Every structure is written in structure tokens, then in C-alpha cells.
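Study this:
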Amino acid sequence: MPWIIPQSIALVLKFAPELDKRIRRFLNPTNDSWKVDETYIKVKGEWKYPYRAVDSEGNTLDFMLSAKRDGKAAARFFRKVLKAKHTQTPRVITVDKNAAYPVAMDELQEDKTLKAETELRQSKYLNNVIEQDHRNIKRIVKPMMGFQSFNTARRTLRGIEAMAMMRKGQVSGINQGNSVSQARFINELFGVIA
């Protein structure tokens, strides 16, 4: 008998990307000091890499799940973050010692996607803001014991990240940690009558 996805998981896979898409226009602007890092999760027994960026205040800029951890993936992630309407062009980007980030920065500065004045700081210790932010995502993902497909992981992470942005108070009209206003906002967003 084929494995059947429980209804609650099917709902998460359906509505998580939609929630992420709908909250984007309500996100408060972030600042120009970026902290970028990638972490890892298991998908079908293999490591995959969620790239994540926050500003100096811990507000999420964006995220992207990648099969690889290289210069091309990092450049693709930077392009995605730069397109977000709630972000501004970075003055400084702090990353860890991963060799992929300078390659990505060079590519983006060469094709004028990123200003030449943007500073890349490679420091293991200045990135503590995002390292702590990873914990919240890992806390939710770890009990899942990995994902069965890349698409399932990507869609689920979109919902987890969207809810994290709401919890942080990044959405206009929602105070940090106020679950009542979060629920009200989601009801309004999807036209649910409470």
C-alpha cells in the first residue's frame, strides 16, 4: 500500500508557500548590515543547505534551500535577497570563512548587481546573530528527522520561516511574540472568519 501523506502535512505543503508569499508585502524594512550563513538539513538521507540572511537586529532578510554549497548557490541567494522589497542594498555583509562567499561577491560586483563599495567581512565570530537565529529553525526541523523530498523541505521551510518572521515582529501590525495578533493576521490574510 502506498504511503499516504496525513492531511495536516498536506495542508502545510499547500499553505506554507502561500503564507510566505502573502506576508511579503507586509514586512517592515530591514537595515543595510547583513549577516549571511548556511546551515544543513537532511533530505532523503543527504545534506542540503538552507542559506539564510538576517540584518544586524536579527530580522530575517530571506532564505533559500540549495542542493549545493558553492559560489553559484551563494550568488543565487544574494540575488534573491537583493530582489526582496523589504531589504535594502547592503553596506556590509558578514559571513563565515566559507570560500564560496568571496567568489559570489566578486561575481555580483563584476556584473554590477552589488555595489563595489559593499564590504564583505569574513569572521567566524561576528556572525553570532545568525548562528543563534539558526537555532529556532533547527529546533522545529530536528524532530522531523529529515525530509523525504527536496520540494517538501523547500515548501515546509517557507512556512517555518514565514512564521518566524511573524514571531519576530517583522510584519506590520504584529508585535513580537504576540500570538493573538499573529492568528488574527493570518485569518485576515486568508479571508477566514473567526
About this structure: The longest strand covers residues 46-55. Residues 7-189 form a domain with the Nucleotidyltransferase; domain 5 fold (CATH 3.30.420.10).
